[in-house]
Amino acid sequence: MVKYGLDYTRCRWILPLLLGIGVIFGIIALAGRGWLESQTLPYVHQASLWESCRKPFEGGEWRCESLMGYAWGRAAAATYLVGFILLVICFALAIIAFAIDTLRFNFIRGIGGLLFVAAVFSIMGLVIYPVKFSTEIEMTGINMFSWAYGFGWTTAIMEICLGFFFCCLPNYEDQILGNVKPTYFYSSP
């Protein structure tokens, strides 16, 4: 952003925009029913972060059981939800930080640290879920962790990457604010 001459006033909303995309991905992961799905026909198993559904045969009805009855289900949901709430808080703080004309760089570094904490909670939930699900819940056929689970991992990876950006941005404070005299690499013949 700094090295190639992109103006701070034009690029200041890129990081909050990426945080907003991370929030949308987190909502999709929380609400999606595709954490685990049957891979082949007949589709007999489908699970979300909140419940596991089975269909006994081709024309039968789906029967769902809540994963909140299991301690690991509550732990996975709680840790991922805490990570998501911290991500939403970081999004709100980033909007506030970048809306102020005088950018507070220590405030931005704090947002980066909070993003790392959110990533830790998200990853804890994303690891607890498949490990305990595959050992505690009986699965028939070939199953795969699917699209909503992938959105959860995408959110966690975005939290880590954006945490680095928010933590490293204050190192370029003078260049961003235009307080550095430009250096020209020109030598006369």
Automatic annotation (TrEMBL):
One of its GO terms (biological process) is cell-cell adhesion. Keywords: Apoptosis, Cell adhesion, Cell junction, Cell membrane, Cytoplasm, Membrane, Transmembrane, Transmembrane helix. It is a multi-pass membrane protein. One of its GO terms (cellular component) is desmosome. The chain crosses the membrane at residues 12-32, 77-100, 107-131, 151-172. InterPro entries: P53_induced, PMP22/EMP/MP20/Claudin. Its main location: other. It is found in: Cell junction, Desmosome; Cell membrane; Cytoplasm. Pfam families: PMP22_Claudin (PF00822). PANTHER family: P53 APOPTOSIS EFFECTOR RELATED TO PMP22 A, P53-INDUCED PROTEIN RELATED. Belongs to the TMEM47 family. This is p53 apoptosis effector related to PMP-22. It comes from Chauna torquata (Southern screamer). The gene is Perp_1.
